[in-house]
Amino acid sequence: MSDPEARTAPHRVGLIGYGLAGSVFHAPLIAATDGLVLDTVSTRSPDRQAQARAEHPQVRTVATAEEVLDRAAAGDLDLIVLASPNKTHVPLATAALEAGVAVVVDKPLAATAAEAERLAALADRRGLLLSVFQNRRWDNDFRTVRKLLADDALGEVQRFESRFERWRPRPKGGWRESGDPAELGGLLYDLGSHLVDQALTLFGPAVSVYAEADIRRPGAEADDDTFLAVTHAGGVRSHLWVSATTAQLGPRFRVLGSRAGYVKYGLDPQEAALRAGRRPDTEGAAWGVEPESDWGRLGAVGVPPAVAGGGSPVTGGGQPVATLPGAYPAYYAAIARALREGGAPPVTATEAAAALRVLEAAKRSAAEGVTVRIGAGA
Fold first, then answer.
1. What H or E segment, with its residue span, contains residue 148?
2. Phi, psi angles (nearest 5°) of residue 253
3. Chain segment 2-51, per-residue pLDDT in tens
4. Please, are residues 374 and 358 in contact by the beta-carbon 8 Å criterion?
């Protein structure tokens, strides 16, 4: 662009879907981002259309994804965000890229790594941005773990434990809990997409996967209690739990190293804040900050306080570590920067494909009761 005004004009965003993902995560974060403007929202529900207009008075609402795609093809949109059901991600992302517009897709990008790679290749051919909304990379606790690793606070990491556990003894229904394989329901592809992405981001490629996936609740159709054991090429083992049947919650993270361990309970506060209607662009309001009582602890049992962060009681203990603030707004800020300046988006389709290879391996492992190798020699 040679026109200075064109370079500084905000990028117009079309959002497809206004359920939980669209209304709670994407729309508020887009609206809070300099350089982006929420232009159009599509949802078939009249109630959700009214909700979108109430929450974002300048937005245009339409009933179908096709209407958003038509606006993109006409040059009226610069970015399409897919917050639609999982089974629509590949066809809608394909259509958006073929219409010549950049795309952000809520996780999971696709059902298979092969589909993700085909989308990545299409985006490359078209010279368009394609990114996946892996917002949990900007959770407060995950950001803190990354800093501890960068600071070498634990020594050589040997085991990484990560949990998204809930107590929901009765299924809620809907496509997320559907047993139809086409819907990509169940916790493996839902919460598991987050945990696998985080593990690969921290410790690199996976070489093998073992998984157990169960349907525990009466009336449930898809996996609601699932465990993955991932071995990384560098030797770290990641143990990942996703469950809706956990009456007593375990730690969100437990990271065990050769000198110390880090244990963190509780969830990042950003989702709860967004659900409650708080917005990250509220002037003067802290965002993503949790109280000191929720901080994780770093230490090693029996080690004097001068070493490894302090002595730990037998029950755990250790020294409190200030949790970095959560930073969901950073995702769309990076999207706006990539659209404006070029360069890679904050999460790439290639990274999504790597995570999908792990999820596919986990699905096969759970079905066959075997450990599945990934990569060369598999």
1. helix 140-150
2. -135, 140
3. 454 455 789 999 999 999 999 999 999 999 999 999 999 999 999 999 99
4. yes
Q: Which of 317, 352, 369 is nearest to 123 (CA)?
A: 352
- For strands 157-165 and 253-257, give the pairing: antiparallel
Residues 81, 12: Cα–Cα separation, whole Å: 11
Tens of pLDDT, residues 254-280? 999 999 999 999 999 999 999 999 999
Pair of tokens at residue 182:
């086409």
How far from 347 is each of 76, 109, 175, 194, CA to CA, in Å? 25, 11, 25, 12
Q: What does residue 333 show for φ and ψ, rounded to 5 degrees?
A: -60, -40
Round to whole Å and give the CA distance between 188 and 111. 11
**Confidence grade of residue 283 (pLDDT, cut at 50, 70, 90):** low
Q: 240 has which bridge partners?
A: 162, 228
Please check whether residue 355 is in contact with residue 197, taking contact to mean a CB–CB distance below 8 angstroms: yes
* Token pair 């008075």: residue: 57
Find out whether 81 and 62 touch, Cβ atoms under 8 Å: no
Looking at the chain, the number of H-run helices and the number of E-run strands are: 12, 16
Tokens representing residue 350 in the block: 């290639």
Nearest alpha carbon to residue 349 among 64, 125, 103, 74: 103
Distance CA 358, CA 368 (A): 15
Phi-psi region of 204 (alpha: psi -120 to 50; beta: other; left: phi over 0): left
Q: Which pTM does this prediction carry? A: 0.92
| Phi, psi for residue 62 in degrees, rounded to 5 | -135, 165
pLDDT score of 376 more than 60: no
| Residue of 129, 147, 190, 39 whose CA lies nearest to 346 | 129
Q: Which pair of tokens denotes residue 82?
A: 């897919």
Helix (H) or strand (E) holding 261: strand 261-264
Residues 6+ apart with CB under 8 A from 266: 141, 252, 290, 294
Predicted pLDDT at 336: 98
Helix (H) or strand (E) holding 103: strand 102-106
